[in-house]
Amino acid sequence: MASIMMTARKKNQRLIVLRKNQPMFELLPLDPEQLELEKFLPEIEAAREEIRQGKFYTLEEVRKKLRLKKL
């Protein structure tokens, strides 16, 4: 199994494991960018929940807090 995984990773191949000619699961190499994104998924979901609860600043409020002029 280890050599199959290494070969799939090197060749960037997707493998489908069959049982009695029925697909059971797939094995595919992870994209490093996807791994980085997954690290932030809990934070993204928390931020979305805050937005649903109305806990956010408008662009105008941010500009005012940072003392920025309108573009």
What does this structure look like?
This protein is an alpha+beta fold and 71 residues long. The protein has 2 domains: 30 residues, no CATH class; 41 residues, no CATH class. The chain has a two-stranded antiparallel ribbon. The protein is elongated, with a radius of gyration of 22 Å. The model has no long low-confidence stretch (mean pLDDT 87).
Task: Provide a brief overview of the structure.
With 71 residues, the chain is an alpha+beta fold.
List the strand order in the largest sheet.
Answer: 1-2
In percent, how much strand structure appears in the residues? 15-25%
Task: State the share of residues found in helices, binned by percent.
Answer: 40-55%
Computed Rg: 22 Å
Chain-averaged pLDDT: 87
| Number of contiguous helices | 3
Give the SSE string: HEEHH
- How is the main sheet built? 2 strands, antiparallel
Spatial gap, N to C terminus: 58 Å
**Secondary structure category:** alpha+beta
Instruction: Identify the overall geometry.
Output: elongated
Unreliable stretches: none
Q: How many domain regions? A: 2
How many β-strands, per DSSP? 2
Characteristic terms for this protein:
single chain, 71 residues, alpha+beta, two-stranded antiparallel sheet, 3 helices, 2 strands, elongated
Write the layout of secondary structure elements.
Blueprint: H1 2-11, E1 15-19, E2 22-27, H2 32-52, H3 59-65
Antiparallel strand pairs: 1-2
